[in-house]
Structure formats: structure tokens, C-alpha cells
């Protein structure tokens, strides 16, 4: 396993004041022993074999315990060390590992599927506190599996994955740890575009829970031909673009209306279906002839403001506090 070296980081981010996203895509193995199942079980097997070779007279329970301990210590040293090195060299970068935390809520074929992370998974994620403490941002994946198409279950799958990220972030050392989910415009591993309701279940759900943003990922396989690129452009122009303008405008207006512009609107638990989607009776999005930028027209009505206050509350930005983020704080 090749460790990161300072030269790698400096070459990738030559600007000393770099403040963008720094996402480490490491998917070969997982830092918790219990998470290395299926094809990743080979790492547990090799870890046991290493300990057995070192201590051929040990009974199996001793070998298992030592292998688990050594594996998790090494995983922590490598992952935490990488983040520490990165933060030392580019302290303003939003350092984090792709896909963490994970909810492992893949049992969506179950008739009683709820999408919730099991207590065992949450307990294992709690033991990764060292990872959350070293991260500047969390990048959970909310790619919608192809098996969820036409099932009406994607919202449960995504809601609890994003929710788990906010749960571990709340216990992290940094009270301002950002959550930036990774999303796609397709159902995963397909060329089927997400319809509007699934955009609400992914991008809209993330925004409603208070995500600082969303990373939209498109694989190179989806852009290999002129036709596929043209299809993406058409989707962006007619579906994705208007939705993002609607959602981001809703978030901005809510911040201004409820949080003095100094915080994000976060959905209240009493209104689990609320989204930061603008009221079509108050706003319209218009296409500019000739392919120009989209334009938003309208204003919040008094009723819109009341509904926002009922459904959302504020999470203040660093340096602000109060129910409406109206007071400066000392941190």
C-alpha cells in the first residue's frame, strides 16, 4: 500500500491557500474489521494468516483478536495519517474520504424495508470517531441503486444515509464539519436518468437535511459518445438545471428569511417530508431563448415565509448563534 507523500499533495494542489474539496477515493478495504465482508473478506483472511505465521502456537480466538486489532490499528494509522498530512500542507482544503460514513442499508428487496441504519452499523460508525475528527468534510454516497428504480424506496435509502452522516458529524470534534453527499444523475450503473421525484429524494433530501452542497458525479462511460453527451445536455437543460435553480434559490431565500443570511435552513423533525422547493404559485423558472441561462421570477409571499418557519429551523454558520443566527459568537 503506497502512502501519500508531500510531493503528491503539493503537485495536485500547488496553491498554498487551496480551499476546495479534497476527496480521497479509497474503496479497496474498509477500516472496521466487521465491514470487510464478501470480496473484502480476503483482507481478514490475510490478516489472520499473518498473525498465525507469527504465532503458530496460538489458538484461533487469540489469532482472530490479534488480527482484528492489528488490521484496525493499521487502517487508522494510514487513513488518519493521510488526512493529517493533507491538513498540514493544505489546511483550508475540505479533506475527507469518499463514501464515509456508510449506512450499508442495502436490504431494499425486503418487503419491510425502512432504509434505517441498523444499531450494529451505527455502533461501528461510532468507533470511527477518529476518522470524523480528522476530516474537514464528510462525503457519503447517495447513488441510487438500479434495483430501486420504480420501487418508491429510494427516499428511504437516501434519507438515512444522509442522516447517518449528520449523526456522526454531530459527535465530531469540529462542530462545523460539513456534509457533502455524492450523487449521480443516473440510477447507478445504468443510463437511466433520475426523474424529478428522484431528484427530490436525492438532491432535495440532502439540502433539506442541511447539506453544504452535493457533489454530482458522472462516470466517463456516460460521456463516451456524442449521443450520450447530447442526452446529458438535454437533461441538464430541461430537468436538472431548473430543479437545481429552484432548490438552491429556495435554500438561499430560506436562509435570508429565517436565519438572517447567516445559517442554513434545516428541516424540523416534525415535518419529515418538507423540502426547500419554491411555491409554484409564487415563483416561475423561465428558459432563455437560444440556450441562455435560466431565470427565476417571483418573491416569497407572507404565507411562504410562515410555512418555511413551520417546517425549517436554522443551523448557524461559524461565528453566528441564536434562533435566527442573528448574534455574533466567539467561535
From TrEMBL:
Cross-referenced SUPFAM superfamilies: (Trans)glycosidases
Cystine connections: 103-117, 254-265, 259-314, 316-325
Predominant cellular place of this UniProt entry's protein: other
Signal peptide: none
Subcellular location per the Swiss-Prot or TrEMBL entry: Lysosome; Secreted
Annotated glycosylation sites: 246
An individual GO BP term: carbohydrate metabolic process
First-tier enzyme category under EC: hydrolase
GO cellular component: cytoplasmic vesicle; extracellular region; lysosome
Enzyme Commission number: 3.2.1.35
Keywords of this entry: Disulfide bond, EGF-like domain, Glycoprotein, Glycosidase, Hydrolase, Lysosome, Secreted, Signal
Protein family: Belongs to the glycosyl hydrolase 56 family.
PANTHER family per UniProt: HYALURONIDASE, HYALURONIDASE-1
Protein name per its UniProtKB record: Hyaluronidase
Taxonomic source organism: Carlito syrichta (Philippine tarsier)
Gene name linked to the record: HYAL1
Amino acid at each position: 500500500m503506497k502512502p501519500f507523500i508531500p510531493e503528491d499533495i503539493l503537485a495536485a494542489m500547488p496553491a498554498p491557500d487551496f480551499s476546495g474539496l479534497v476527496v480521497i477515493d479509497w474503496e479497496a478495504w474498509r477500516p472496521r474489521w466487521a465491514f470487510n465482508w464478501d470480496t473484502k473478506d480476503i483482507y481478514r483472511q490475510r490478516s489472520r494468516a499473518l498473525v498465525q505465521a507469527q504465532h503458530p502456537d496460538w489458538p484461533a480466538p487469540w489469532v482472530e483478536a490479534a488480527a482484528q486489532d492489528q488490521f484496525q490499528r493499521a487502517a487508522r494509522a494510514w487513513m488518519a495519517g493521510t488526512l493529517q498530512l493533507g491538513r498540514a500542507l493544505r489546511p483550508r482544503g475540505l479533506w475527507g474520504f469518499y463514501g464515509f460514513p456508510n449506512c450499508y442499508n442495502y436490504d431494499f428487496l425486503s418487503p419491510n424495508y425502512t432504509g434505517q441504519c441498523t444499531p450494529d452499523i451505527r455502533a461501528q460508525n461510532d468507533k470511527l470517531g477518529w476518522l470524523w475528527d480528522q476530516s474537514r468534510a464528510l462525503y457519503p454516497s447517495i447513488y441510487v441503486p438500479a434495483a430501486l428504480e420504480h420501487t418508491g424506496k429510494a427516499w428511504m435509502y437516501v434519507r438515512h444515509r444522509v442522516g447517518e452522516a449528520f449523526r456522526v458529524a454531530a459527535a465530531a470534534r469540529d462542530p462545523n464539519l460539513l456534509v457533502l453527499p455524492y450523487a449521480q444523475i443516473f440510477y447507478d450503473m445504468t443510463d437511466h436518468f433520475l426523474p424529478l421525484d428522484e431528484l427530490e429524494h436525492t438532491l432535495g433530501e440532502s439540502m433539506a437535511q442541511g447539506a453544504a452542497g452535493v457533489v454530482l458525479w458522472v462516470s466517463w462511460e456516460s460521456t463516451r459518445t456524442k449521443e450520450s453527451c447530447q442526452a446529458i445536455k438535454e437533461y441538464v437543460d430541461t430537468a436538472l438545471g431548473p430543479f437545481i435553480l429552484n432548490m438552491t434559490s429556495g435554500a438561499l431565500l430560506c436562509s435570508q428569511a429565517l436565519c438572517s443570511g447567516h445559517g442554513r435552513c434545516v428541516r424540523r423533525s416534525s415535518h419529515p417530508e418538507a423540502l426547500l422547493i419554491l411555491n409554484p404559485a409564487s415563483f416561475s423558472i423561465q428558459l432563455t431563448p437560444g440556450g441562455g441561462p435560466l431565470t427565476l421570477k417571483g418573491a416569497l409571499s407572507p404565507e411562504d415565509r410562515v410555512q418555511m418557519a413551520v417546517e425549517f429551523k436554522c443551523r448557524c454558520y461559524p461565528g453566528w448563534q441564536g434562533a435566527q443566527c442573528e448574534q455574533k459568537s466567539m467561535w
